[in-house]
Amino acid sequence: MKKLIFAIPFMALAMTACNPSDIEGGSEWAAITADQIQVTATPAQVDGKNGNVIHVVSASPVVTAWDAPQLIENTTHTVTTEGDIYVTRLGTNTITLSATNTGGAPVTKEITVQVDTISYITDAIKNRLCIGKTGAPDHFGIGFDVSKVIIEQETTEDGTPGNKIKVTSNINPTLCTFKWGSGTMDTNIGDLITYDLGDDMDLTLEVLQADGSIKNFNLGKFSAKEYTFFPKEITLLTGYHPTESPTATKTWTLVDENNWGNGGNNDQKPSWWTTTVNGQGGSNGTITFDFANSTLTKVIFDESNKAGDKGGSGAFKLDFASANASANILFRLNTTEPGNIIYPIMINQGDYHPTVYDVTLLTEKDLILRAQHTNDNTWEGCFWVFKAVPEDKK
Fold first, then answer.
1. d(CA 264, CA 271)
2. Is the pLDDT of residue 6 over 50?
3. Of 169, 71, 82, nearest in space to 125 by CA
4. Is the pLDDT of residue 56 over 80?
5. CB 92 within 8 A of CB 50
6. How far is Cα 188 from Cα 163, in angstroms, rounded to an integer?
7. In which element (H, E) is residue 12 found?
8. SS in 3 state form for 51-106?
């Protein structure tokens, strides 16, 4: 088997934005129709097959944008007269282009392309497939064999079944979502954890193939009798404990001073510069973790704040597999808009709102979150400093 290409150099995917002043088409192009637009979309050839990188060209003197639907990610929107775009689904894909020469409402046109192999894998799909890890697939495609899913359940010293099932090997080149009791795992290999103790809970698997088709499997019934995995950090952050406080929630607010700042991407605390979110046009508020329902609720004290931060609720997940002592990562917090943290704005990355946070410090009363920059400032982290809200002040 020939080695597939999993990443395309940045410049190869760089899109050239159009400047309307550079492509004046004259008065005959002031009002255009779909039939007038001369465009092509050609899949790159990979071993004689149509790959999922599409070379698009617009020969008409208009501003052209390309909208390409993706399998699990949002539709990509690219403005270019010539460049490379991509899709993430096998089979017939419909790309919608829109064109205008006056800045008004664009005319739209659909182009279909046939994709036979996924030669470029996006980070989102690559991470879910766990490509590069032992026991994971090396490509994205179709075909699923349930016998290739190898699992083992953690037990106590006396053999009592625990609340963790580990998927040790799964080389199927498809996106897998495992469910067991209250636990969900959407990576092909890893730890599936439930916080429900009970008998004969179904372990189910949903498989999403590269052509968009879905298959469902029941891998059997598994009981969880004891907690073999329950990090104390869950209770520290959320107040929840499966036996002692199964309905508890916990609320945090930013400290009064020096609650937002920056530092090195491995620092535990903001060490370069700090200020308050109020001083940056934001507003303080509260975030409440409800672990039993996997919900993070944000309340903003002043929703008229200039930064535009508003309250809301969304799902959250805790990722303990990401712990890294050398980088001061206890675990990671994954949020979902609008249930993000207070003032979720990167200090040197414009209005970018991260949804993945490193938990660098956590005690009963103190919490520090750090987000990594995704632009050129990869050495820099942005920090938020919280304190616990006492129960009688919620």
1. 7
2. no
3. 71
4. yes
5. no
6. 19
7. helix 10-13
8. EEEEEEEECCCCEEEEEECCCCCCCEEEECCEEEEECCCCEEEEEEEEEECCCCCC
Gap between the Cα atoms of 229 and 162, Å rounded: 8
pTM for the whole structure: 0.68
DSSP string, 167-191: EEEE--SSEEEEEETTEEE-SSSEE
CB atoms within 10 A of CB 269: 16
Q: Looking at the predicted structure, is the pLDDT value of residue 184 above 50?
A: yes
Residue 144 has pLDDT above 50, yes or no: yes
pLDDT above 60 for 219: yes
Taking 80 as the threshold, does the pLDDT of residue 241 lie above it? yes
Among 100-104, 123-127, 275-279, 319-323, the minimum mean pLDDT is found in 100-104
Q: 168 with 152: CB under 8 angstroms?
A: yes
CA distance 159 to 153: 10
Residue 104: per-residue pLDDT: 67
Q: Would you call 103 exposed, middle or buried from its count of C-beta atoms within 10 A (0-12, 13-18, 19+)?
A: exposed
Rounded to whole angstroms, the maximal C-alpha distance in the chain is 83
280 Cβ contact list (under 8 Å, min separation 6): 260, 307, 343, 345
User: What's the rounded Cα separation, in Å, for the pair 370 and 347?
Assistant: 11
Nearest to 87 by CA among 134, 42, 20, 26: 42
